[in-house]
Amino acid sequence: MMTWAVLAWLPMAGGVAQTTMAELHEVVSVPAEAPWQGYGFQPAVAPTLVFRPAPGAPPWSGHGEWRIELANRMPWAITLTLQAEGDGGERLQATVGVPAGPAQTLVLPLRPLSPRDFGMQAGPPMPFESSGRRLLLATTVTGTPLSGALRAVRVSMPAPQAPQQVWFAQPRTHPDETAVTEAYRAIVDGFGQYTRGSWPEKIADTPALRAAQVREAATRPPAPAGGDRYGGRPGVVGLTATGWFHAQKAAGRWWLVTPEGGAFFSLGVDAVDPGEGRSHVQGREWMFRGLPPREGPWRTFYGEDRPASTEIGARAGLAFASGTWFDFYAANLYRADGADGLSAWRARTLARLAAWGFNTLGAWSEPALGAAHRLAYTRTLTIAGAFGNVATGQDWWGRMPDPFDPRFAEAAEAAAARASAGAHDDPWLLGYFLDNELPWAGPGAQGRWALARGTLAGMPVSHAKRVFIAELKRRYGSAARLAVAWGLAIQDWMALEATGFVAPVPEPAHPAIAADYAAWQRRYAETYFDVAVTALRRHDPHHLILGARFASSTPEAIEASARRVDVLSFNVYADLPQHGLDRALLQRLDRPLLIGEFHFGSDDRGPFGKGLVPVWNEAGRGEAYARYLSAAAGDPLIVGAHWFAYADQPVSGRLLDGENSHIGLVGITDLPFTGFVEAVRKANLRALERAAKTCLEAPCPGDTGAPARPAD
What is the residue range of the signal peptide feature (predicted)? Predict the structure, then answer.
């Protein structure tokens, strides 16, 4: 065991806690043989302890793990930040939450590390029990690997508001990553559930699963009565029936309107699909316990995934991103209903969604559910092909397609034919989304201009780049005039044509930069939407075009979309929809808008991630859902909101990108989260009433009483 010394407090406001060992054992039950010392982190920006090997002691190894026993003596959890310093000046950083209660071993891996190294985006909860000890592993470590010995470890607390007492024992290094391995070992059972957790919907065996499905069906409430067969609400003055879903403004707000003329507020669920429970198992079989054999009836639930490209940002640095996968969700349907599991799931799922107050199948849902004609459904125009692209830095799902490339128009035509096949004459089809979360903008303060700057950074063969430069030549005539307007030191147009050209950031001294970028981004968006909408209208002139599912956007893209689609769509992950939208711009445009995705997650039902908008616990999910939906229904521009997603993501990470969050209405076993879905059902019914409150009077001035199409 290594000897140790506390070097300093930073700032020097801390102090040794004067607590006897007897008092300490009474509070935290630490081992009697441990040489503990207590410290009070005093109110300051970042009070810090520095641990070093004692003078004359052997150096600490810069490999493996650094460990220290500690006990949080406060009645609440605290946060500690760790910084390991190597002899060569390298640094590693991590942040850990330390719960109150028994003593535990804090473990800092001495290399950069994250759950992505294990094929998932969120790591298992800490601490965990291993061989009778509580281990608190820093699952995410950033920085530079240490090239030599470990010189020091700084342990600090961010801005405590009152003294916080923590007890420490001797730190030591461990030559390998035993705690890292143990943290991920056997964490998923054969049903796809987290092995170390417990929650009301967790099942122990197949008979329990079957019994739970029977109970759920027996206690399921009836679907709301009233309205037309599409779920439209009668009694809103001024709406017209066209035989197709359409958008119309009446009595002071925008509505979707059913084919029979009923007012329709789209309450939808995304990814209602039995194939969402697939997770890679090849190469990390040690992380699972009780995987079914790969023969007999179980072989149906194994498959191979060999992505053609791993360039999308969602897969960057993700280990175990290809190879053999197992479909836990589909296997559980087989356990519950045998060979008839898929058809039983379809009937059960449609009945559940109707009973819970939903009326729409959102994006990524199984086509067979829409074909059942029980709920309105959506389709997505996914334009893929060998056309050019532009990097914006926000390329999570891939780069921005180049709509000036002639191959893009060809791909759009093929995509429109695929998307509309078998649906262009179906009145149950709500409409089409155009792609999904394209990177219209980039990250950071200057992200709005990423599309323009990314275009100019492209290769000379880029169609978009050639069009942009041609536009600048027409506007300025000479490179010298552009240089003055943009504050550049260029002599000719060849400078812009070079691959990797670093376009300037807009600044007040050169207002022409922002004006030229905005003009280009407007033309870019207009071209994209013209091509996509024209292709889709050629194959299906009847149904709604539901917009681009913006996750990142620019005013130019929103305005171009508003003039060409029937409904704007945004994926808004926020506490309220209005907090993720440019309300001033949208009010000026006065177009209907649909929330394509939103959710709230917690980590108390198995999966480790809390999604994009975390809440404290399961009860908080229902409360957050009700607030969000009430705000959406009360907004006269919003015509619907779709929850993402129907089922929880696999504990070990989904195939696409390793996401593993508890964001579902049902779990990996297809059992509903009872308390949450009841809160959802009540919120859905209230939302319909809230939306209708603005529609109790005669049509307002400006209401046309006719279906609305975007202006030319």
Answer: 1-22
Write out the two tokens for 705.
Answer: 């009483």
The pTM score is: 0.93
What does pLDDT average to over the chain?
Answer: 92
Tell me how far CA of residue 611 lies from CA of 197, 320, 574, 601, in angstroms: 18, 21, 11, 5
pLDDT at 313: 81
Q: How far apart are CA 415 and CA 413, in angstroms?
A: 5
pLDDT at 3 over 70: no
Q: Between the CA of residue 26 and those of 21, 29, 68, what are the distances in Å?
A: 9, 6, 20
pLDDT of residue 104: 95
pLDDT at 598 over 60: yes
Alpha-carbon distance of 501 to 4, in angstroms, equals 53
Query: Which parts of 235-375 are beta strand (E)?
Result: 246-250, 253-257, 263-264, 266-269, 278-280, 302-305, 323-327, 360-361
Token code pair at residue 144: 């530079």
* Whether pLDDT at 699 is above 50: no
Q: Distance between CA atoms of 407 and 387, rounded to whole angstroms?
A: 5
For residue 45, how many other CB atoms are within 10 A of its CB?
A: 12
Q: Which two tokens stand for residue 75?
A: 């009645």
Query: Which two tokens mark 95?
Result: 């942040």
Q: From the CB of residue 647, how many other CB atoms can be counted at a distance below 10 Å?
A: 22
Query: Comparing C-alpha atoms, which of 59, 64, 66, 104 is closest to residue 84?
Result: 66
- Asked if the model's pLDDT at residue 4 lies above 70, the reply is no
Q: Report the DSSP pairing between strands 400-401 and 389-390.
A: antiparallel
Say if residue 702's pLDDT is above 50: no
Cα distances (angstroms) measured from residue 346 to each of 272, 279, 329, 366, 368: 10, 22, 13, 9, 8
Q: Residue 210 CB: number of other CB atoms within 10 A?
A: 15
Name the packing angle between helices 555-562 and 511-539 (round to 10°): 30
| pLDDT band per the 50, 70, 90 thresholds, residue 695 | very low
Pairing of strands 150-156, 48-52: antiparallel
pLDDT at 616: 96
Determine contact, residues 530/538, Cβ cutoff 8 Å.
no
* β-strand pairing of 104-109 with 133-137: parallel
Nearest by Cα to 150 from 172, 169, 135: 172
Strands 360-361 and 593-598, how do they pair? unpaired
Q: Measured between alpha carbons, how far is 215 from 345 in angstroms, rounded to an integer?
A: 15
77 pLDDT more than 70: yes
pLDDT (average), residues 590-596: 98
Ordered by where they begin, the domains of the chain are 5-184 (2.60.120.430)
- From first CA to last CA, the distance across the chain in angstroms is 76
> HSE on the CB side for 228, CA within 13 Å?
19
Tokens encoding 139: 């699952």
Sequence letter at residue 402: D
CB half-sphere exposure, 708, CA atoms < 13 A: 26
Six token digits for residue 132 = 């009778």
CB within 8 A of 266, min separation 6: which ones?
256, 359, 360, 376, 430, 594, 639, 640, 641, 642
E-assigned strand segments in 189-310: 246-250, 253-257, 263-264, 266-269, 278-280, 302-305
Strand order in the sheet with 142-143: 5-10, 48-52, 150-156, 78-86, 91-98, 142-143
